[in-house]
Design goal:
Residues 40-347 form the GH18 domain. Keywords: Carbohydrate metabolism, Chitin degradation, Chitin-binding, Glycosidase, Hydrolase, Polysaccharide degradation, Signal. Its EC number is 3.2.1.14. It catalyses: Random endo-hydrolysis of N-acetyl-beta-D-glucosaminide (1->4)-beta-linkages in chitin and chitodextrins. With 507 residues, this protein is an alpha/beta fold. It folds into three domains: 41-344, Glycosidases (TIM Barrel); 353-449, Immunoglobulin-like; 467-506, Seminal Fluid Protein  PDC-109 (Domain B), CATH 2.10.10.20. It has eleven helices and 26 strands. The longest helix is centred in the middle third of the chain and has 20 residues, at 164-183.
Amino acid sequence: MRRMRSLRTVLTAAATTLAAAGLALAGGGTARAATPLPAHVFAPYFEAWTGESPAALAAQSGNTYLTMAFIQTEAAGSCTPYWNGDTAMPISSASFGSDIATLQANGGDAIPSFGGYTADTTGTEIADSCTDVQKIAAAYEKVITVYGVSRLDMDIEADSLDDSAAIDRRNKAIKLVQDWAAQNGRPLEVSYTLPTTTHGPTGSGLAVLKNAVRNGARVDVVNIMTFDYYDNATHHMADDTETAAQGLHDQLAAIYPDKTSDQLWGMIGVTEMPGVDDFGPAETFTLADARQVYDWAVDKGIGTLSMWALQRDNGGCPGGPAADDCSGIQQNTWDFSRIFAPFTSGSTHPADDFSVTATPATGSVAPGGTATTTVKTAVTAGQAQPVDLEVSGAPQGATTTLSPATVTAGGSSTLTVATTAATTPGTYTLTVTGTGSSGRHTASYTLTVTGGNGGQCTAAPWSAGAVYTGGQQVSHQGHAWKAKWWTTGEEPGTTGEWGVWQDLGAC
């Protein structure tokens, strides 16, 4: 995957170095325990150079597992790993340690990823950079023990696919670490993330896997990047995901002839890029594509679902080109995460469901004016469904309209509140209710009607048991009233124009 934004250093710590001999660790401290990942897991990539908190974004987006990108060396020839190759971000608890611990405490985990497009094109992917297999293995082991993780990802693309010596070193190091993990009773999986065509990886990607077999290195997941095809064709991205994965399945069958078809599907992972990818609009992955891929992934029983990247899962740049911080399409924030997150349970299709929000959630209007807000719906699980909208809680003397009154989940409606000169000033909470086949969801819109005394009546409230004489004033139902003569038990607003109570207006 590509790293498009510049590095921003937000964590500072002294750089550490790995021991040169064997798999010994320098300053690793007590090794943290690891928990195996689920058989089916959604783990979107987190761009680790942005200065954001992975734990915070995971909580906001509803994700429990993240793939952390990327670990690489500072410069070609080095054997010391850093997050993003930044010496201020060593492999230590000071760099993402508390975030990863939070993910784990919440029932999830992180998958540290080595490599990535930048590292693979600058010689800083650790096996490209370091010629000592023992030191490469030590780097892997340090990441595992410092963060207590149970899977490492190797993102190998571009120039790294052509470095046969580095491919061999990497797989030899993986074998060493897998043996170490087995001897110490630690769960450990290794995934390879590789580029693909619409019919599976090319020969260079397959050569990485074949070399792993020759070196006795176990590959648990082969994760293909089902985007950036760069073939100058117009794509239906969900369909192309299916054909690419089928091609990979058939290729894996030749490499691992002893595995069943179900086991091969369980080895497969796919990574999507939400919205417009690096090639351009011809490769646009939509929310409809995401729902299709989700259903297909559950049916096939693939092992891993991912996307590049979590920070893109928002509609902040609709109609724009590929970016690292938005999808380039119309969407609500975390729409893709909501579709994919249930995959971690992996066994069933999620029931259809939707959400309702009002944007903006507040507004103000003078009596006689109108206020509007946009009522947005989104598919939060399963497929889109018709949603009937209605609104309640409007102030007396105001009317509300929703245009349209029925939308398909994912669509929007305009709520208009029209007040009259008699509308009582004050603050009101309007409730928009969306009703679909899966149930009801609501959103609140707070409307302030300005003017008068800010909704506060100064006269004493009317009392049914009190005696009033001509000229006395009371407040009742947001209006001020004046008695024309002696009265008791007659409610203001019910005696008519010629009755005892004179309406002095809203207060």
